[in-house]
Amino acid sequence: MNISVLLITIAIAFLITVLLSPILIPFLRRLKFGQSIREEGPESHLKKTGTPTMGGLMIIFSIIITSIIMVSRAAPEGISYELWLLIFVLAGYGVLGFLDDFIKVAMKRNLGLTSKQKMLGQIIIALIFYFILQSQDFPTTIQIPGTQIEWELGWLYAVLIIFMLVGSSNAVNLTDGLDGLLAGTAAIAFGAFGLLAWYGFPQYDVTIFSLAVVGALLGFLVFNAHPAKVFMGDTGSLALGAAIAAVSILTKMEILLIIIGGVFVIETLSVIIQVASFKTTGKRVFKMSPLHHHYELLGWSEWRVVTTFWLIGLVFAALGIYIEVGLS
């Protein structure tokens, strides 16, 4: 697969999203599918109330259509089970996110599905993902990036998969709090995994899928950059979080997800630290969590916070690529 195929994949996904957006955004507005803003959030965010949400629908549609078109053209042997698995995870978590978003807008409240309902759905999809992998004799080992050290996990690999899919989907969801923040950081992370899947032992279907995500997110950024005309909602964030975990599993770079997805890890840790500190000492470490809100309350502009986090995401992506390629 030459580089032109990769660029065409990004371009097609970008165009599909850009062309869909002017149709879907007014449709969501007419349906009054507007975002509800948390009262305990930054006061500056209240003006975003009513901005159309569920924009993740066009991201998911663009990724699926682009992936199927490009893989069908590039792979005469047909679409692999890896791509169908990635589509299953993307769509499955997307449906969970859609239900969560729909309940929020239909009931005009900040909370959609209960935490138990959402967790149950996430675990069921993760288990189905694991059992399909097992039917394909997928290796249950994990390897330390940049080394030849690996461990056989056996049945514990199922626990790892559940932890990764559930944890990643929630971590990415936490990051979706500012205009363009998640779209940019996720595009960078998927781009890194796409390049690694292409460079190493080539996994063309995973490469195409990852770069289709990049193109779809860049197209979404046209309308989601500050000031956002649409939000992706849980429909997009849960789907993207689970999908990047699935990509790291299928490329056998499970541990590398911690590095390439460093921004998502930091955002999640900030919430854990904040909650733990408040419950044990009654004091808060940050002005607000997740971390991006802390910098907003320090007086940073929204655009400054977002671009800084994009830059940090680029550093983590470059570090991950160096560890996997440069140290191997």
Structure explained in plain terms:
With 328 residues, the protein is mainly α. The chain has one domain (3-253). It is 70% helix and 2% strand. The protein has helices at residues 3-30, 56-74, 81-107, 115-135, 156-175, 181-199, 204-224, 233-250, 256-260, 262-281, 291-297, 302-326, and strands spanning 141-143, 150-152. A two-stranded antiparallel ribbon has the order 1-2. Strand 1 and strand 2 form a beta hairpin. Helix 3 (81-107) runs antiparallel to helix 4, helix 5 (156-175) packs across helix 10 and helix 6 (181-199) packs antiparallel against helix 7 (204-224). The radius of gyration is 19 Å and the shape is globular. The mean pLDDT is 91.
SSE order and pairing:
Layout: H1 3-30, H2 56-74, H3 81-107, H4 115-135, E1 141-143, E2 150-152, H5 156-175, H6 181-199, H7 204-224, H8 233-250, H9 256-260, H10 262-281, H11 291-297, H12 302-326
Antiparallel strand pairs: 1-2
Helix pairs in contact: 1-2, 1-7, 2-3, 2-7, 2-8, 3-4, 3-8, 4-5, 5-8, 5-10, 6-7, 6-8, 6-12
Summary keywords:
328 residues; mainly alpha; two-stranded antiparallel ribbon; 2 strands; 70% helix
- Structural class determined from secondary elements: mainly alpha
Helical fraction equals over 70%
Amino-to-carboxy terminus distance = 22 Å
Mean pLDDT: 91
**Shape summary:** globular
Strand order of the largest sheet: 1-2
Helix tally?
12
Radius of gyration: 19 Å
Largest β sheet strand count, sense and barrel closure: 2 strands, antiparallel
The overall number of domains is 1
Query: What share of residues are in beta strands?
Result: under 5%
Oligomer: single chain
The total of beta strands comes to: 2
Low-confidence stretches: none
Secondary-structure element series: HHHHEEHHHHHHHH
